[in-house]
């Protein structure tokens, strides 16, 4: 979760959404926290803590090392497991291997990623990447793979609700980037509305990634994820800079977004990516492109890049 967050407001005029009906989860845990050897911290947030880890004995479904998430929020973890089980077999979504929701702390075991979050990767390698003449093509490839993941979420009727650079993992840049962290995600197949959600329970949300319709009408749809994708593009172009860097308080951020102010154009950003970024921030939200549209736009950009980049793109 981002540094700026605040409790979500409920709109008494809106019809309360039905609670998600979560599929029954297999009860038998095959490990506990004492069975884990935590190797390296990847990131820590309000939804949980991520580590590189291994089991003290044996492997997890053939994986000797893996990513694990440790949390104390049972309902969130159960919902996250249910959602991740719907998102199997996609190369750009961090895959769930196993879980333990029978005792605290609750644990998810996911596939291994070598470089942690994309935000940390870009910040750590800024000097090297800045000197690469193919930087814009590399960032476009990574953006394309993130868009593919979000297109898959849309096809499964899942809203991520927390798409941000810190929630994208890197195994090999830019070809193996994976959307992760589904602690705030919503599965709309089990809700009254199949296109958007209004929550009645207070939640803390990442304000700097949220769209104006959320603050004005307590409304978040698939187009809210599209807005957040535009913020992710901006984060990538600025090597992990916090969005709206000149605004310090939650109140300032919300006021700024509701007035229609946007992040400034990143220095050196290719015009085609800037165009997609701005399209993602269109108002009203009905004017924003779908993730299928975004995938097509990114494919068109990559088709026009240099042959060496195109070869890597097709691999």
UniProtKB/TrEMBL annotation:
<keyword id="KW-0547">Nucleotide-binding</keyword>
<protein>
    <submittedName>
        <fullName>Si:ch211-167j9.5</fullName>
    </submittedName>
</protein>
<dbReference type="InterPro" id="IPR008266">
    <property type="entry name" value="Tyr_kinase_AS"/>
</dbReference>
<keyword id="KW-0067">ATP-binding</keyword>
<feature type="region of interest" description="Disordered">
    <location>
        <begin position="1"/>
        <end position="31"/>
    </location>
</feature>
<dbReference type="GO" id="GO:0043235">
    <property type="term" value="C:receptor complex"/>
</dbReference>
<dbReference type="GO" id="GO:0001525">
    <property type="term" value="P:angiogenesis"/>
</dbReference>
<dbReference type="GO" id="GO:0019838">
    <property type="term" value="F:growth factor binding"/>
</dbReference>
<dbReference type="GO" id="GO:0005021">
    <property type="term" value="F:vascular endothelial growth factor receptor activity"/>
</dbReference>
<dbReference type="GO" id="GO:0030335">
    <property type="term" value="P:positive regulation of cell migration"/>
</dbReference>
<dbReference type="InterPro" id="IPR001245">
    <property type="entry name" value="Ser-Thr/Tyr_kinase_cat_dom"/>
</dbReference>
<dbReference type="GO" id="GO:0045766">
    <property type="term" value="P:positive regulation of angiogenesis"/>
</dbReference>
<dbReference type="GO" id="GO:0005524">
    <property type="term" value="F:ATP binding"/>
</dbReference>
<dbReference type="GO" id="GO:0043408">
    <property type="term" value="P:regulation of MAPK cascade"/>
</dbReference>
<dbReference type="InterPro" id="IPR000719">
    <property type="entry name" value="Prot_kinase_dom"/>
</dbReference>
<dbReference type="GO" id="GO:0045446">
    <property type="term" value="P:endothelial cell differentiation"/>
</dbReference>
<dbReference type="InterPro" id="IPR011009">
    <property type="entry name" value="Kinase-like_dom_sf"/>
</dbReference>
<dbReference type="Pfam" id="PF07714">
    <property type="entry name" value="PK_Tyr_Ser-Thr"/>
</dbReference>
<feature type="domain" description="Protein kinase">
    <location>
        <begin position="36"/>
        <end position="302"/>
    </location>
</feature>
<dbReference type="InterPro" id="IPR050122">
    <property type="entry name" value="RTK"/>
</dbReference>
<dbReference type="GO" id="GO:0005886">
    <property type="term" value="C:plasma membrane"/>
</dbReference>
<dbReference type="GO" id="GO:0016477">
    <property type="term" value="P:cell migration"/>
</dbReference>
